């Protein structure tokens, strides 16, 4: 298992640094204005990077006791280039996501502990089995940190079981099945049928010029979306035509299918761009 990263300060261009929290815009070293933004809540909690100077002082008045506040100081004029993107590694096809992210120049890490989650600029929740994944998240004390991180604005991308994990509401879930939530959708679990009903289809995805070969494996579909959710793709053929299978809502993305399978990293590319611009 990879541990939470603990590195010496790095001079690399584009590498993000953490500085004590400051309010409001302020002059940058080269005369430009650097907007210091408060670090997202979910990622401040349980933060355990290794260096004292990476750590912000304890939160000031008005902040919950013990919460550390962080700010991000982007290099002037450049988005951060190699974002650290975690893949929730409790169960499922973690390796395929790590490979896709690596091929895009992101810095992927496996996430099994709160400290690893806190080191992420974005998070992928893989395909697998959502009922198992959610139980393991509880057992590993990750469920609340995940909810706090996603609710606090951490960019997240769920595929198949990962879509279920991000959904606010489930139809046909296991009894009492919980989710991380955050994505304002109702997802229908196993909507296309059983494992033997798995299929592939060329799918047009909003934002991509050419269709993707979408692999559906005992997949959910999106039964309903709130107004703030953008539909990126719908099934084009067959009895399920019109069903919503890819969505975005702010910093959250989800697909019913598995873009991590088949060597086409364009949808991961959309997510990496989302992380870079967040
Ligand atoms: N391929 C998948 O991720 C299947 C999802 C699975 N049916 C679930 O409910 O979690």
Automatic annotation (TrEMBL):
Biased composition (Basic residues): 35-44
SUPFAM superfamilies in the record: Class I glutamine amidotransferase-like
EC number: 4.3.3.6, 3.5.1.2
Keywords (A to Z) from UniProt: Glutamine amidotransferase, Hydrolase, Lyase, Pyridoxal phosphate
Residues at the catalytic site: 160 (nucleophile), 258 (charge relay system), 260 (charge relay system)
Listed pathway(s): Cofactor biosynthesis; pyridoxal 5'-phosphate biosynthesis
Catalysed reaction, written as an equation: L-glutamine + H2O = L-glutamate + NH4(+); aldehydo-D-ribose 5-phosphate + D-glyceraldehyde 3-phosphate + L-glutamine = pyridoxal 5'-phosphate + L-glutamate + phosphate + 3 H2O + H(+)
UniProt region (Disordered), positions on chain: 1-67
Database matches in Gene3D superfamilies: 3.40.50.880
Top-level taxon: Bacteria
Compositional bias per record (Basic and acidic residues), positions renumbered to this chain: 45-57
Ligand binding (L-glutamine): 128-130, 189, 217-218
Cross-referenced Pfam families: SNO
InterPro entries, per the entry: Class_I_gatase-like, PdxT/SNO, PdxT/SNO_CS
PROSITE patterns to which the protein is assigned, alphabetical: GATASE_TYPE_1, PDXT_SNO_1, PDXT_SNO_2
CDD domains for the chain: GATase1_PB
Subunit structure and binding partners: In the presence of PdxS, forms a dodecamer of heterodimers. Only shows activity in the heterodimer.
Family: Belongs to the glutaminase PdxT/SNO family.
Task of the protein: Catalyzes the hydrolysis of glutamine to glutamate and ammonia as part of the biosynthesis of pyridoxal 5'-phosphate. The resulting ammonia molecule is channeled to the active site of PdxS.
Designated name of the protein: Pyridoxal 5'-phosphate synthase subunit PdxT
Taxonomic source organism: Nocardioides alpinus
Gene transcribed to yield this protein: pdxT
């Amino acid at each position: 298992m990879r541990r939470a990263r603990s590195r010496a300060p790095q001079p690399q261009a584009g590498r993000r640094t953490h500085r004590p929290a400051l309010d409001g815009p302020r002059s940058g070293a080269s005369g430009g204005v650097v907007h210091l933004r408060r670090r997202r809540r979910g990622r401040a909690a349980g933060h355990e990077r290794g260096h004292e100077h990476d750590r912000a002082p304890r939160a000031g008045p008005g902040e919950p006791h013990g919460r550390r506040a962080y700010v991000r100081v982007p290099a002037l004029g450049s988005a951060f280039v190699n974002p650290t993107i975690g893949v929730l590694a409790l169960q499922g096809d973690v390796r395929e996501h790590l490979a896709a992210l690596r091929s895009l120049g992101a810095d992927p890490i496996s996430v099994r502990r709160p400290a690893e989650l806190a080191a992420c600029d974005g998070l992928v929740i893989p395909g697998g089995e959502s009922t198992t994944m959610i139980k393991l998240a509880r057992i590993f004390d990750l469920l609340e940190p995940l909810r706090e991180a996603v609710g606090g604005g951490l960019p997240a991308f769920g595929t198949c079981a990962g879509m279920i994990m991000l959904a606010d509401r489930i139809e046909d879930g296991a009894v009492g099945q919980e989710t991380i939530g955050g994505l304002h959708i109702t997802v229908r679990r196993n909507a296309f049928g059983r494992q033997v009903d798995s299929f592939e289809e060329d799918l047009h995805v909003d934002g991509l010029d050419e269709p993707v070969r979408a692999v559906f494996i005992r997949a959910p579909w999106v039964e309903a979306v709130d107004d703030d959710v953008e539909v990126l793709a719908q099934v084009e053929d067959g009895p399920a035509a019109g069903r919503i299978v890819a969505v975005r809502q702010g910093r959250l993305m989800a697909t019913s299918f598995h873009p991590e399978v088949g060597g086409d990293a364009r949808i991961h590319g959309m997510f990496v761009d989302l992380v870079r611009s967040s």
